[in-house]
Amino acid sequence: MKSPVPARFDYSDLAADAREMAERTAEKIRRHQQRTSREIIDIGTDLMKVKEALGHGRFTAWLQAKFGWSDKTARNYMNAARVFGGAKAEIISVLPPTTLYLLSARSTPETITGKIVDELKSGRQPNPAAIKAEVEAFHRGAKDQARREQEQKPRAKRLKKLKDPERAERRWAKEQEQQKELQKQAAATAQKIIDEVGVELVARVLDATHDDWLVERALRDAVQAARDRTRQSAA
Length: 235
Known about the structure:
The protein has 235 residues and is mainly α. The protein contains 10 helices and no strands. Among the domains are: 16-120, no CATH class; 198-235. Helices cover 80% and strands 0% of the residues. Helix 1 packs across helix 3, helix 3 crosses helix 5 and helix 8 (165-197) crosses helix 9 (199-209). Mean pLDDT is 80; it is low at 1-6.
């Protein structure tokens, strides 16, 4: 395999001996990283065999007794071996272990993994930070899609039961507009409160409640009690 071209670094302001030392250290780290990635895949392959021989329950106990490992740690190694075993082991050896684990996770789609392997084959050096961002963006998109589908389920169910779907659709749209108006009014009220008492005080109140409805109810009761005392004093 052709070695990927590393990102350029400007050594122009360094002395020759400093540049040589930096390059020598970089090469040492690259070799160490390649050995580490290969060893991860090798160990992962052996772990899969041990797991099959011992069985799931005993495998977990073996991991804990021998290395203090969790199942998750072992899965990182085994996933790497499952996805990148064989000929791919050499191709991906330039990637750091964290990127290796991320790409071989079962939740990472093959489209992303395959693209990175193709880039490495062509001699390009993918940026680990960019890989992580791409995987995280995929997961965010998947979660958003799942949320949208979940939100649409009650709507689709209601429309299916009704004899007049078009009317139900119009009613649904009207409800959505009403919801948007309520949100707009709530935003205006929130801004009014911030303008009157200050953003820092509002922030402290929110931090104190942490969406705890018991705290919110206690605050409402305390406000009501204070108002009652004020009215009694004025009477």
